[in-house]
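Notes from the 1:1 (GR / supervisor)

We went over the backlog. Supervisor wanted to see one worked example end to end before approving the batch request, so GR pasted a single chain during the call. The sequence is below; no edits were made to it. Supervisor asked that the structure be written out right there so they could see what the output format looks like.
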Amino acid sequence: MKNGIVIYEKFYQILKNKIECGLIPKGSRLPSRAALCREFATSEKTVRRVVEMLAADGFVETSQRRRPTVIFERTAETYGRGILPLQKADATAANDILKTGILVCYPVISSGISRCTEADWEIPEAILEKMDPSQPAGFWRLSNRFWRFFAARNENDLILRAVDGLGFADLDPLPGTYAIRCAYCAKIKEFLQTVKRGGAPESVHFDDLSALYGFVSSQAEGRLSFRVAADSPMRSGTKTLYQRISKAEERYSRVYLDILGLIAIGRYQPGDRLPSHAQLRENYGVSIDSTVKAIHLLQKWGVVTAIRGKGIFVAMESRELSRIRIDPALIACHIRRYLDSLELLSLTIEGVAAHAAVHITPEEAKALGEKLEKVWNEDYLYQLSPIILLEFIVEHIQYDALKAIYTVVQDHYHIGRSIPKLLSHEKNQYNLKIHQECRTIAGCWEEGEVYLSAKKAADMYQYIQRLIAAECKRLGYWENAMQVYDGTFLWK
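Structure output shown during the call:
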């Protein structure tokens, strides 16, 4: 499985680009699985996963005993990344994404900088060396690559998908003057030297370049002056951002993982009827195809039975779940996804919590505190308090792009309850400390303490991240999870 995620993502992009550029036109069939295996020198399992991703994203249609058929039609609006006619960005969508970028990218880049060792600086230095102020288009694109390097240096696939999903790599701002570009280049050089010496990134102050992005004259018209590809979220909005960040197999695996977790904690008992496919689709925000795949897998394991016309029923007791033979590589993928999500959460939650807190009323905070107490004292199942708190924060996020990213994080947070022995179903000193911190944060919101609540939220989720990492190492999960993909492949 080493590098597995990176490998099938790479092959997915290759086929997607061929379809978008018209090399594999609408109505034609993809090569056979055997031919694709030979072309990419990979396994049939990887090819099958790539085809599933293409189908989930609307590029191909699959049917039994027939090769996948391309259903994507290339138009002037969807001509493939890099070839698409550039369009001015929509002000509403772009402002939403730019504000999300401040809350997500700044702490992520700062974290990446802190991880750089002596040899790592060669890469941003090489990018900076190629930034020629006399070539405006290439200059600004290399600037995007420079900052993206530090996001990738976190060696976290989910973090990089979140950053890339915002579409900053598509930005093509106004060229500005040669003097502006020279001054900006000098500031980047100063910045690089500062952080290499261990200085604070925020100590280097950049000039305001907002005019290059249309924030002065064009905003009144509802348009921004920088140019992006027609399929960029900067232009099309953030409705598809969730799909950009979460992979197809993650969406259906989340359904069966959560059902396993609910059975494990006793929420569902043998004989209980599960929600219908329509209800599962609404509950998890996935397609019917995803819920069908999830239920079929649970049937294969003997966890549930499906009776036509009557519904889906639990067939296995919680103590029997340990008998299920789940591929260790699959478990490792789930744990890595959980760990990646915890890291993204712990890095960005302080700013996000401060943003959400402004929109929380004292009455809402008081109701949250009462709910937390009820869950702890009356309805205790496992470590629910931080999940309830996270869901409350997500509800009060005002930026669509940020809410899409945090919805993925929230979805992945539930994975923990389905991993055997990882979360304690009994109250202990760690659960008590976390619950008390959640109550304190709710109290801060009730008193209007925005920044104190944000700092406490950051401390608590970072504490949880450390606890989970230590427990994964103790249980022997950590090493396999780290082998799911090679994080250095994302940036080297």
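Supervisor's comment: The two ends are 19 Å apart (CA to CA).
Batch request approved.
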